[in-house]
Design goal:
Layout (H helix, E strand, L loop, with lengths): L2 H6 L17 H10 L3 H14 L2 H10 L4 E2 H8 L3 H13 L3 E6 L2 E6 L2 H9 L8
Antiparallel strand pairs: 1-3, 2-3
Helix pairs in contact: 5-6
Length: 130
């Protein structure tokens, strides 16, 4: 299916197979209830996807994936204003994805930890949902 065909087909038009026999398997349901995310955890993870849905934030993460950079360098490299970069970095910092340190009048940012790096890399070119 091409991208054009995919985007023109609405979700409501998509046929999804379902059970013909409406028999609930209680063992499966009980096990599922033990393993399924709580609503609070699902909300927290959904917020992460919301943060990652912005292309400028992904570009910032890609810039910081291999090195620490100051806001000035990030703004120049991404061809964005410093205030726009700072705003996006604030959002990433609120999700604990980046850390910063001050050196004189400059502020340097880096990915917070190996988990932030892993999240960035996991949504890289091998992401096959689309």
């Amino acid at each position: 299916m091409t991208e054009q065909e995919y985007s023109s087909e609405s979700i409501e038009d998509t046929q999804v197979p379902s059970c013909d026999d409406r028999l609930v398997h209680l063992d499966n349901v009980r096990q599922l209830q033990l393993e399924i995310l709580s609503m609070a955890e699902a909300q927290r993870r959904a917020e992460l996807f919301t943060v990652l849905a912005d292309p400028n934030r992904l570009r910032l993460l890609s810039a910081l994936a291999n090195q620490e950079l100051c806001v000035c360098d990030l703004a120049a490299g991404l061809k964005m204003g410093e205030s726009a970069v700072s705003h996006q970095l604030r959002v990433l910092k609120s999700m604990r994805m980046v850390n910063y340190r001050k050196e004189g009048r400059n502020v340097y940012y880096s990915l917070a930890d190996s988990q932030a790096i892993e999240i960035y890399r996991s949504i890289g070119s091998n992401f096959k949902f689309i």
